[in-house]
Amino acid sequence: MAYLDVYEAMRTTRAVRRLRPDPIPDDVLRRVVEAATWGPTGGNRQPWRVIAVRDVAKKRRLQELYEGPWRAYSAGYRDVLAAATDEVRARDGRMLAAADYLAAHLGEAPVILVFCFNAGLMAITDAALDRPSVVGGASVYPSVQNALLACRAEGLGCTLTTLLCVNEPEVKEVLAIPAEWGTCAFVPIGYPVGRGHGPLNRRQLETMAYADTWGAPLS
Amino acid sequence: MAYLDVYEAMRTTRAVRRLRPDPIPDDVLRRVVEAATWGPTGGNRQPWRVIAVRDVAKKRRLQELYEGPWRAYSAGYRDVLAAATDEVRARDGRMLAAADYLAAHLGEAPVILVFCFNAGLMAITDAALDRPSVVGGASVYPSVQNALLACRAEGLGCTLTTLLCVNEPEVKEVLAIPAEWGTCAFVPIGYPVGRGHGPLNRRQLETMAYADTWGAPLS
Q: Between chains, do A125 and B166 touch, taking CB under 8 Å as contact?
């Protein structure tokens, strides 16, 4: 288990969508999942669970269930892209090609992590507001991020997807997930076909962070 | 900037609620916020922004807005705890005492990070399901977790709270947040009064992770 600086890990953890089918050793997988358990949750309730799917038939079924949502999402994305600049079209076109590859090979990833949550164990503080609620995610996605960073440390490619939520009833049937639990993240992981993790494409800090007031640049 | 192993960072990042008022150097704060920008988001849209609140009057106002929700939440928590075992009551009682301290001193933290999100920039794949939606959080809480891990690396205490969402309209007014943006995470940060980050109190891996089917222990 290599020693990796936390800043270096965060700076180089990106979506890796082309994965080799080679198996992931049990101890490596356990380290990735254990890192997730260290994430913070509201009231330390830990209202999530993860299913590590390695069964070939179940992974194939998840791939089938992914196809429809991916086709719909990517068609919309390509429509938007048609009107974009050449630079954006080239960059996002590469991303879409990799995501097409993932959709066509999801079932071949050695492991798909399926994160589940129980809203009944959460205090969702934005539930009554007149806008989409996101706060339930505060008790599961920090843990998912830990898993992604652990993958980076282990040399495993991975990407966070939520598209399978569209077909949640079918996913729950495949994995025997109880009625009161929902699904919220799907992370195919495996050793990368290409270079794997590396430099990110992100907006500059100045456009993301403000000082004291919306829009005032952070000095 | 010290070198810190990513696993060590994740294993020791816990809620630190007693913070010293001493200022945080600008370059340290920038590193924490920049780490957040590296987090993954759906379609790489980065549909979040963060406001670093250092203004004393604004921090005091946030503390005032925190008091009501904290009083309501903690009263409910104490009711539950009254029926718990001695061990749980002692452990969670310590947590509640620290959280009471935070509520009474929130405005004295040198910085409060306020994370905002724009649902219009998100593909919320679980919006149509017959259960609370959490997927919008997938495009902001991984970034929040990066900020917490960066705080850990910098020796800064921090904790993720969402209680101020209860008073979101007032918070938006204080910080001039535009109508189409919501608030989703509040992270007071500062150098710790006590030991700061350290060992976690979490459920065992075996109770959190399953293999292929709900409830089947991960080997």
A: yes
Measured in degrees and rounded to the nearest 5, phi and psi for residue B109 equal: -60, 140
pLDDT for the residue numbered A1: 59
- Confirm or reject contact between B74 and chain A (CB < 8 A): no
Q: What's the CATH superfamily of B6-207?
A: NADH Oxidase (3.40.109.10)
Q: In chain B, which residues have their Cβ closer than 8 Å to the Cβ of A201? A: 44
Q: Which fold has domain A6-53+110-207?
A: NADH Oxidase (3.40.109)
B chain contacts of residue A13, beta-carbon cutoff 8 Å: 38, 40
Predicted-complex ipTM score? 0.97
| Buried-exposed string A33-54: b where 16+ CB fall within 10 A, e elsewhere | bbbbbbbbbbbbebbbbbbbbb
User: Where do the structural domains in chain A lie, given as residue ranges?
Assistant: 6-53+110-207
Helices B56-82 and B86-105: crossing angle in degrees, nearest 10, is: 160
To the nearest 10°, the Cα dihedral for B2, B6, B11, B16? 50
The model's pLDDT over A63-81, given as tens digits with 9 standing for 90+, comes to: 999 999 999 999 998 998 8
Of residues B10, B15, B134, nearest to A35 (C-beta): B10
- Give the per-residue pLDDT at A219: 76
Q: Report d(CA A113, CA A184) in Å as an integer.
A: 11
Q: Work out the number of other CB atoms within 10 angstroms of the CB of residue B173.
A: 12
Instruction: Work out the minimum CA distance from A34 to partner chain B, whole angstroms.
Output: 6
Q: Report the distance separating Cα B93 and Cα B46, nearest Å.
A: 38
Residue pair B200/B14 in contact by the 8 Å Cβ criterion: yes
User: With a threshold of 0.95, does the pTM exceed it?
Assistant: yes
